[in-house]
């Protein structure tokens, strides 16, 4: 029986990458909440207010029913630390396998972002993730200026071209892109140059297979 994953996005442009990565093995039900980021940034949100909002969202999706919930928005993920949704299915964050991949090799890594609002939350989660593994991250965050506006305006071609060109110019030996919207550009540069670029989709399939019991969880 095909299992169902409820995918929660903040923008509809994140759907194709998830479909390409998971759609052949799972039934994907997509939920898009474009108002979340404006709502989050509109004023100083109290923690309990944010917790109630997200718990309701996740409980609604989990009640579909779904066998798992996948969060693809870094803003959602960063706000998840205090959320305890009452849903019987597991909740996965797209950055979990991504962060794991960053520590599989030694040496400094530069993570590129386009949305400045995601940097602080993502880096906080990365430090927490590293602490749990007992490692010290050597990570630098860098924002591609004036790029996220193109994405939000629906100018996806211009956005991906700008991101790809910026990736191409990076001298860092280890490079990653921190947002799902950037993965198509990262994959393009990988094909053109053979250079490995970490991104949120690279290990997602294996991660979800383990979560859904489709593979042996042991290494």
Layout of strands and helices, then pairs:
Layout: E1 4-9, H1 15-22, E2 27-32, H2 36-41, H3 47-62, E3 68-71, H4 74-78, E4 91-93, H5 95-102, E5 109-113, H6 119-133, E6 139-143, H7 148-152, H8 156-168, E7 175-177, H9 183-193, E8 197-198, H10 204-211
Parallel strand pairs: 1-2, 1-3, 3-4, 5-6, 5-7, 7-8
Outline:
The protein has 219 residues and is of the alpha/beta class. It has helices at residues 15-22, 36-41, 47-62, 74-78, 95-102, 119-133, 148-152, 156-168, 183-193, 204-211, and strands at 4-9, 27-32, 68-71, 91-93, 109-113, 139-143, 175-177, 197-198. The strands form two sheets. Strands 2-1-3-4 form a four-stranded parallel beta sheet, with helices on both faces. A four-stranded parallel beta sheet has the order 6-5-7-8.
What would you say this structure looks like, in words?
The longest helix is centred in the first third of the chain and has 16 residues. 36% of the residues are buried. The chain is an alpha/beta fold and 219 residues long. The mean pLDDT is 87. Strand 7, helix 9 and strand 8 form a beta-alpha-beta unit. The chain is 43% helix and 16% strand. Helix 8 crosses helix 9. The strands form two sheets. A four-stranded parallel β-sheet has the order 2-1-3-4, with helices on both faces. The chain has a four-stranded parallel β-sheet with strand order 6-5-7-8. It is globular, with a radius of gyration of 17 Å.
């Amino acid at each position: 029986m095909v299992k169902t994953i409820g995918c929660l996005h903040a923008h509809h442009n994140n759907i194709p990458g998830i479909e390409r990565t998971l759609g052949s093995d799972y039934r994907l039900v997509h939920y898009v909440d474009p108002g979340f980021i404006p709502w989050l940034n509109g004023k100083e949100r109290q923690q309990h207010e944010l917790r109630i909002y997200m718990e309701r969202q996740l409980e609604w999706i989990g009640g579909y029913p779904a066998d798992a919930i996948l969060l693809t928005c870094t803003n959602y993920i960063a706000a998840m630390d205090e959320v305890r949704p009452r849903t019987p299915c597991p909740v996965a964050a797209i950055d979990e396998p991504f962060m794991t991949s960053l520590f599989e090799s030694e040496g400094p890594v530069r993570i590129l972002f386009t949305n400045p609002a995601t940097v602080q939350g993502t880096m906080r989660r990365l430090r927490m993730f590293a602490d749990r593994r007992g490692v010290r991250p050597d990570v630098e965050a860098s924002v591609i200026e004036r790029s996220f506006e193109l994405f939000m305006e629906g100018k996806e071609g211009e956005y991906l071209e700008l991101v790809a060109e910026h990736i191409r110019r990076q001298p860092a030996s280890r490079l990653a892109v921190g947002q799902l919207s950037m993965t198509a550009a990262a994959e393009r540069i990988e094909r053109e140059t053979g250079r490995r670029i970490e991104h949120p989709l690279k290990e997602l399939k294996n991660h979800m297979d383990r979560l859904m019991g489709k593979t042996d969880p042991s290494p």
